[in-house]
Design a protein that fits this description.
The protein is mainly α and about 120 residues long. The chain folds into two domains: about 70 residues, His-Me finger endonuclease fold; about 30 residues, no CATH class. The chain has five helices and two strands. A two-stranded antiparallel ribbon has the order 1-2. The longest helix has 21 residues. The chain is elongated and about 50 Å long. The protein binds zinc ion (ZN). The site of zinc ion (ZN) has 8 residues, from helix 2.
Length: about 120
């Protein structure tokens, strides 16, 4: 029994579309082509179960995707932006923002930026 599935709304539709997706992709991970049986919501929502919003993944890629979602929400929670969004907005590299985050100075740096609004 997959426990995570219980968190989703309209879970019958998700289950049905997961099977369709497995059939469409011939049971292969859309990222690495290994045998796959898990679906991820591309937009990270928990309620858009459209086929176009589902990606079939193997265990490994699914785990990787979950880890990156966690990472994303950590920065968004702290600063209102993900590392990628900071790079898009203000240039430099994600390594730069990560390093400043580790030093504890990122918040001060961001506060001085133009257009910085922390909505969180
Ligand atoms: Zn994979």
């Amino acid at each position: 029994m997959e426990r995570w599935i219980a968190y989703y709304k309209d879970h019958y539709r998700l289950k049905k579309n997961r099977l369709i997706k497995i059939d469409q992709e011939k049971g292969r991970c859309e990222q690495c082509k290994q045998p796959a049986n898990k679906v991820k919501h591309i937009d990270s929502s928990r309620d858009n179960h459209d086929l176009s919003n589902l990606k079939l993944l193997c265990n490994e890629c699914f785990g990787e995707a979950l880890r990156s979602i966690k990472k994303v929400s950590k920065y968004r929670k702290l600063y209102g932006f993900t590392l990628d969004e900071m790079v898009k907005r203000w240039g430099k590299s994600s390594g730069y923002y990560f390093y400043e985050h580790r030093k504890g100075t990122l918040k001060d740096i961001l506060r001085k930026k133009k257009n910085y609004i922390n909505n969180t």
